[in-house]
Amino acid sequence: DVQLQASGGGLVRPGGSLTLSCAASGFTFSNYAMSWYRKAPGKGLELVSVIGSGSRTMSYGDSVRGRFTISRDNGRSTLYLQMNSLKPEDTAVYYCARPEDGLHGEGTLVTVSS
C-alpha cells in the first residue's frame, strides 16, 4: 500500500521548536517532490512548504519562511519539517503530501500554547 504517515506533533510553548517526520512507503520516494500542508481550527488548508525530489529546491509559505525548514532523507524515505520560533498561530494539524497527485496521510497535531 502507498502510505504517508506523519508524526512528531505535540504541545509546545511559544518560541519553542518541534520537528515533524513523515514516513513514506509503497512508492519510490526519491522520485517525487513532497510537501507539508496544515489546517488550523476554523481555517482552510494552507501550503507550508515544498521540497524537490533531490532536495535542490525548497519553497515556503510567507507565514513560516525563516522559521521552518523542510528536508528529506531519500535513503530512509522520510520527509521532515523543522519548526522553530513557534507561534500560537502555528497551531494546526500538519499533513505531508505528494503534490503530484495529492496523496496524503493522516496528519499530526501541533499545539502552540503557554
Please write out the topology.
Layout: E1 3-7, E2 10-12, E3 18-25, E4 34-39, E5 45-51, E6 58-60, E7 68-73, E8 78-83, E9 92-98, E10 103-104, E11 108-112
Written account of the structure:
- By secondary structure, the chain is mainly beta.
- The protein contains no helices and 11 strands.
- The protein has strands at residues 3-7, 10-12, 18-25, 34-39, 45-51, 58-60, 68-73, 78-83, 92-98, 103-104, 108-112.
- The strands form 2 sheets. Strands 2, 4, 5, 6, 9, 10 and 11 form a 7-stranded mixed beta sheet that branches. Strands 1-3-8-7 form a 4-stranded antiparallel beta sheet, with no helix packed on it.
- Strand 9 and strand 10 (103-104) form a beta hairpin.
- The termini are far apart.
- The mean pLDDT is 97.
